[in-house]
Amino acid sequence: MPRKAIIFGNGLGMALNAHHFSLATAMHDVWHLNHFLTAEDRGLISQTLGDVNAIPQTEDQLDTLHQVVTACKTLNRVLMNQLHWLTPHGQRFPSAVARYIQKVATRLHLTDAELPPAFIDPLVQFVRQTNSHIATLNYDRLLYGAFVDQGLLAGYDGNLVDGIYTAGFAARNLERRAGRNFGYYLHLHGSPLFYDDDGAIKKLQRNELSMFTNNDSEHVVLTHVQHKRSVIIASPILSVYWNYLHRCLQEASEIMVVGYSGCDVHLNEIISIYGQHKHIKVIEWQAQYDHAIRRGQWVEVFRSQNISLLLVASVLGFNDWA
After folding, report:
1. Closest to 24 (Cα-Cα) out of 301, 159, 222, 219
2. 146-188 tens-digit pLDDT
3. Torsion-angle region of residue 58: left (phi > 0), alpha (psi -120 to 50) or beta?
């Protein structure tokens, strides 16, 4: 069977438990925890949302917050003797925001839920047979955990490789050597398992992650869509993953998009490059969509007519990967 590229959005989690895997719920829950943000942090973040009592609930709200954090980082790099552009609180504000974002991703990751066998078993079998590429946009452990447990992700010897070994991430870890033909597992928007350790980007074991794990990093993409590219470019690991996405789509006989809303312009533009001469299969929750209208929307999103759309009662009911 030919190799495919399968891109997963947050639809798997939402189909499994819409409350737990809701980004709005996770942002709300972490906001109200007492351990990660001070009252001053919350006040400053709320002001960037337009109201002193505002609570972040969507990525669309985070436009000004991202700009403020970027400005603070810039001013932190401007060194002056015994004088600083920012107050001490302003100096540490970027770290506070990064911690909040990391904990939101952690909250989404921490779950005992598992994908149903009727969904995951055929997918595992298909990837094992074809070394098809997998790319994820979500932060949860649903696919990742299943693939680790099934041996698909097993360092350099697995069917899928994400480039992170004991010593950390390196782009050379993604290179195929000695005739290997593995596929790639790309955490396109990062993972709360990632952490920085003396210049190296490493990955926690799943059982090492909790809400109290001290693993602050900037390798999670959670911001307004127009700023996602800058977060990706600033992360050595994410920028490599997005470069490899081109290779994955180029190698694939077909592009499958599962449980994805279509809102990430930076992803859509890359898919549209390869969708001119490859088939794109979109599998999504039927909601209240009219098939013809919805397919027309995907044609616009991916700028391609090579699209088939399957609207399903639940994406977890799909298992026809071949």
Report:
1. 222
2. 999 999 999 888 999 999 999 999 999 999 998 899 999 999 9
3. beta
Nearest to 15 by CA among 124, 152, 114: 114
Query: From the CB of residue 171, how many other CB atoms can be counted at a distance below 10 Å?
Result: 14
Contact 154, 103 (CB under 8 A): no
Q: How far apart are CA 102 and CA 262, in angstroms?
A: 23
Round to whole Å and give the CA distance between 203 and 167. Answer: 10
Q: How far is it, in rounded angstroms, from Cα 315 to Cα 125?
A: 18
User: Rounded distance, CA 271 to CA 277, Å?
Assistant: 11
Q: Which residue has the tokens 């921490």?
A: 110
DSSP bridge partners of 311: 284
- Amino acid identity at 72: C
Is the sign of the CA dihedral 89, 90, 92, 93 positive or negative?
Answer: positive
Residue 144 DSSP code:
H
Q: Which domains does the chain have, with CATH numbers?
A: 5-15+112-190+235-317 (3.40.50), 23-109 (no CATH)
Place of tokens 């490789």: 161
- Whole-prediction pTM value? 0.95
* Residues 191-200 pLDDT 10s: 999 999 999 9
| pLDDT, tens digit, 9 for 90 and up, residues 256-270 | 999 999 999 999 999
* Integer Cα distance of 62 and 59 in angstroms: 5
Instruction: Quote the pLDDT of residue 80.
Output: 72
* Residue 26, φ and ψ in degrees, nearest 5: -65, -45
Query: For the chain, what's the residue count?
Result: 322
Token pair for 122 = 């055929």
Q: Are 1 and 126 in contact (CB under 8 A)?
A: yes
Element (H, E) at 293: helix 291-302
